[in-house]
Amino acid sequence: MLSRRDIIALLAAGAAAPAVAFEPSTQPRLPWAAFRRTPDYPRFVEAVRRMKANPDAESPNSWGFWPMVHMHHCPHGKPYFLAWHRGYLHLFEAKLREISGSATLRVPYWDYFADPHLPAEFTSGNSATNPLFEPRIGGEVGKALGFAAFAPQITGFQRGASAECFEAEVEAFHNKVHNLVGGRMATMLSPSDVIFWVHHANVDRLWAAWTAAGEGRTMPPPGDAYWAGRFDYAEGVELDRAVASDGAGLGYRYPDLKLPAREGEPAPRPTPRPVEIPPPPADAAPAPVPAPVPVPEPVPVEAPPPMAMAPPPAPAAAAPAPVPYRGIWLGGSRYQREPLARARDAGFVPDEVTIVLDQISLSGAGQLGGYFYDLYLDLDGEGRTLPECLLGSIGPFQISSARHHSEDGMARIELPVGEVIRREAQGLDLADLGVVFARVEVEGAAAGETIAIGSIEVAGG
User: Fold this and answer.
1) Phi, psi angles (nearest 5°) of residue 430
2) How far apart are CA 202 and CA 206, in angstroms?
3) Which residue of 35, 349, 379, 397 could cross-link 30, Cys pair, CB 3.0 to 4.6 Å?
4) 358's torsion region: left (phi>0), alpha (psi -120 to 50) or beta?
5) Cα(331)–Cα(373) distance, rounded to whole angstroms?
6) pLDDT tens digits for 26-42?
């Protein structure tokens, strides 16, 4: 079993300079606007610059190392989505501290519920002048945000333990943020974009806030079988699952643990005291501070034109297979209704219902993101998008993930929708139902055909 010190030392292997391992003291992860004013901001930027300048993708000191960890090991749409990413963020954060020479550096978070626009520091200049810059499609993610995860009735945490769970609801809007930002954020190589890290720090903060909110919200207790076993990150690099049960044990905390609320609704928790930026520990050796990176005054965020960037590297080498007989293309219209084919094992509103989207692929333009599709159950053939009939969403990020883990280079996505169908379609023949695909996009998203789906079926037991 590796200790935190062992893992930090292991990740330092291959560095030109001797490894610097810090004991993790509890430090705050700050919102971006506050972090931007601390001495650790230029250290953060400089550490990113150095990692991007390192061409050895086999070394954890290289920026290219971390996207490959994500592509080969991350669980999406599965149990431990939150806990695995908590450990991943922790290991990356330790590497930043080592490279920057700062024991106080913690990855800040982007609170898009407070401001959905990308911070200007990530959009200024270009890749040659600004280490935080990345070609993207979308500059704001307001259309991605949802509040279902924070509703009072969502008290269960883990997948499989309840029909509605916090982890699945959080991952739903997390996926949409990936899709609307676009570029490499819409692929399995999303950690290539610095936005990935501040996005996931916010996801982790929201998990901590949900846990602290109480009112029936429960996590598997320490010692529960849920925390048994380990997470894999790279060859020889593992973390015990139990260390991800509490961020404080990993050396950080969030001063702001307020859950998001819709405008006009009371927040589940009162607003905490203003964020305070503590001074570095008295016994910490002073770290050399790189020259500050000049940042222009914030400017209105505009998405770059789609053709300004090269398509991101395809995670899978397999060429898209021909679209089967029932294949459809999404992208020609804002709303599109498709009938459901009843699988052999489906009958009249079974106890468990899953909508299966099979043989999914992306067009070249579709891979760049900037859009996603919300799926609604259509009851009467009129193609209405009723909020209570929302089944889920799909976009290039989910498709990229499913495709990478498939054997034939084509994606298969299953949407458990039993609760919606039992509530809204009781007594109806499932073969008479349909699905409406409603496109949500930002300016600059690819027009035309983006997603091919071979078949849409409803299966149940």
Assistant:
1) -60, -25
2) 6
3) 35
4) beta
5) 9
6) 899 999 999 999 999 99
